[in-house]
Structure formats: structure tokens, C-alpha cells
Amino acid sequence: MDLEQIRRDYGLGTLKREQLHDDPHQQFALWLQQAIDAELSADPTAMTIATVDGEGCPSQRVVLLKGHDSQGLRFYTNKQSHKGRDLALNPNICAHFSWLPLERQVSIKGQVEPLTDEQNDRYFHARPKASQVGALVSQQSQPISGRETLDQQFERLMAQYADQEVPRPGHWGGYLIKPTEFEFWQGGRNRLHDRFLYQLDAGQWTVQRLQP
Fold this sequence. Notes:
Mean pLDDT: 95
Helix content: 25-40%
Distance between the termini: 28 Å
CATH architecture of the largest domain: Roll
Family: Belongs to the pyridoxamine 5'-phosphate oxidase family.
Oligomer: single chain
EC number: 1.4.3.5
Pathway: Cofactor metabolism; pyridoxal 5'-phosphate salvage; pyridoxal 5'-phosphate from pyridoxine 5'-phosphate: step 1/1; Cofactor metabolism; pyridoxal 5'-phosphate salvage; pyridoxal 5'-phosphate from pyridoxamine 5'-phosphate: step 1/1
Pfam families: PNP_phzG_C, PNPOx_N
Strand content: 25-35%
CATH topology of the largest domain: Pnp Oxidase, Chain A
Order of helices and strands: HEEEEHEEHHHEEE
């Protein structure tokens, strides 16, 4: 297999300044809805988030977007996980959406702030019970002796909470990403892609085209 020969040209569309909303949140909402409507995959809301640990080492993982409005983007996780520990030390984050069948990408930089207990409780108890129990069972990112141990703990707790509400673990909750930058990328022919960068400056968004 010659990886150097694997390529394709991008020609589905172009992106011009006059096509963009002045507010990047509105532009993101439009592209997100188009990705959902296109039924690209089972996970159109999947985003890769990058965090940095106390030694300056970055790491990435995929999470699901669970809310978006003019305030920012929301996702939920175990806050004792690798990413949770990173964010406790450094609230800076980058989120990336890759909708390559549409020849589009969006990168979002910002800082996180924790969601409220009310928000966390509301979403946690809206999840399927098995997912709630899974959050109780998993000490995310920690070593475990084997899969059997995890499955046994899960079955025990499913039986325990069969007829009662599952308590939300105190370490499980959500974050709001408050963006300071959005970059919208539309693939172009001959690798001359269209890129537009929104930056937040004194409460106002500025937009500029970037070279590919």
C-alpha cells in the first residue's frame, strides 16, 4: 500500500464571505444541521477535543456534542478522567468537527466552565438507565484487571437499581465550551481550500479569510 498515492480532490463547493453569518454560532448551527440532515454517519455530533496536561503534553479524544447555543457548546464526561484532570489544571480546549463527506471541517478554540448540578442532573437522568449505571461503574481512564470485572460490576448495579433511580456520581458532569475562535474550512480544488477565521475581540466577532 502506497499511502503517498491515496488522495482525492475536493470539489463539492466553495465558501465566500458573503455566504457566512456574522455570528459564528449561527454559522456553526447551520453546518451542524446540514451534517445531521445529510446522515453522514451514526455520529454527526462527534467532536474531537484536545486538552493539555500539567506538563504541557496534549491529548485528544472523541466525545459527543450535547448542546449548542449562543453561550457555547456542551458535553458531559467523568471529571476524574484524563480529560477532566487536564481541564481542572488548564481550562483551554480545542474542539474539532470533521464532516469530510461534505468536505467541511470546523475547529473551535475556547475555555471551559462547569455546568450546574441542575443541568448535570437533568441530562444524566434523561440517559438510558444502562448508560447511567455505566457511569457509576467506570472509573474512566484507570487501569482494570479485565473486562469480566467491569461486566460483573455493571450487572450487580443494574440489579441493584432495577426499580429505583440511579444516583448521579458527584464526579460526573458537563462543561460549557465558551469559544473565542471558530475556523470554518471548505475543501477546494487543487488544495486551494476556503478557510475563514472568526475571533472574539472585546465582545465582537471579527472575520478574516486565511490562506489554505
